[in-house]
Amino acid sequence: MSDRDLEAAGITDPGLRTAYEACRRLHAAHGRTYYLATLLLPSGKRPYVWALYGFARYADEFVDSLTDPDPSALIRWGDAFLDGLDLDGDSRIDPSLDAVGAAMQHTMRQWGIPRVHVEAFLESMKSDITEVGYATYPDLETYMYGSAAVIGLQMLPVLEPLTAEAAPRARALGEAFQMSNFIRDVGEDLQRGRVYLPQEDLDLFGVSREDLARGEITPPVRRLLQFEIERTRAIYSYAAPGIDMLHETSRDCIRTAFVLYSEILLAVERADYQVLRQRVSVGMPRRLAVALPAMNRAMRIRREDRRWRRLDHNAMA
Predict the structure, then answer these.
(1) Is the dihedral of CA 216, 220, 224, 230 positive or negative?
(2) What is the number of other CB atoms lying within 10 angstroms of the CB of residue 32?
(3) Phi and psi (nearest 5°) for 246?
(4) What b/e readout covers 136-166, taking b as 16+ CB neighbours within 10 angstroms?
(5) Are 316 and 4 in contact (CB under 8 A)?
């Protein structure tokens, strides 16, 4: 399928095709829910989402790997990528970039993705080298702007917004996705020495880091997680109208991701908030139950859209 998607996107350079395929493999291996949702986009847009996801995942692994973290490599890699963006007016891909960087640079040029979004993302990744917690929710929001909100903003040109109001909704959706992950991954993040739930919230419910490290879901820990879930659902509620502010061919992708990521919160509740010693998830049967009807609808919409009818037909031929 990847060759057909690359053809539909007009990506013919062999080196770039290899770079995008490397990003696709990262996406398929580590972002299964989002990868499934990406299949609902027109085929000619999918490779650009692979690049955006692959770049974020590759950078994140420098600081989040439980077995082989390499923070200094993140700094070198990020600086080299930003240096490659300084080739103003030069359409060539910086030959010094690795596969992930090359695909990301090409994607940024194709869709006019601002450099400042990537700078903000890399700054948040660097903060993970030294920061182990956040005192207040506004402090955490500052981190999430770079680590999550700008991912939504990077995606936005590919999704073709119909109004400028889509931008704050896309930013909020990125934050909601990340808060869902933070709630699900409390135990895993503790292994890295980090807590992404604000200290002011822990204090409010009388929970300490030591309490979390013991792995027991006590009544105060349960109330803390319930509080964070309700806060995150409010963010999803604000983000939801943004889906209809996107081009019709983009909506099923984002709506599917919206439903499945938001159901992480439901999965936490159904697991009785047991997130300190295990990782809950939305099962594959549920993912398919959401994605398959959306797939049929997305294909019908693309057939009715002149721009994508020809490209998708060629990609499937």
Answers:
(1) positive
(2) 14
(3) -100, 160
(4) ebeebebbbbbbbbbbbbbbbbbbebeeeeb
(5) yes
Radius of gyration for the alpha carbons in the chain, expressed in angstroms and rounded: 20
pLDDT of residue 65: 77
| Cα atoms in the 13 Å half-sphere on the side-chain side of 259 | 15
Instruction: Please check the confidence at residue 223 and state whether its pLDDT lies above 90.
Output: yes
Mean pLDDT of 218-222: 98
DSSP, residue by residue, 213-245: HTT---HHHHHHHHHHHHHHHHHHHHHGGGGGG
AA identity, residue 175: E
For residue 193, is it left (φ>0), alpha (ψ between -120 and 50) or beta?
left
Q: Is the pLDDT of residue 202 over 60?
A: yes
Q: What is the pLDDT of residues 57-76, one digit of tens each?
A: 999 988 887 677 788 999 99
Query: How far is Cα 254 from Cα 204, in angstroms, rounded to an integer?
Result: 34
Partnered with residue 124 across adjacent β-strands are none
CB–CB of 128/70 below 8 Å? no
What SS3 class is residue 116?
Answer: helix
Grouping H, G, I as helix, E, B as strand and the rest as coil, residue 132 is coil
Mean pLDDT taken over the chain: 91
Over residues 212-228, the mean pLDDT reads: 97
Q: Which residue has the tokens 């209809």?
A: 244
Global pTM value: 0.89
Place of tokens 């009715």: 304
Alpha carbons 293 and 243: distance in angstroms, whole number: 17
Q: Which residues contact 45 (CB under 8 A, 6 or more apart)?
A: 9, 158, 250
CA dist., res. 294 & res. 41, Å (int): 11
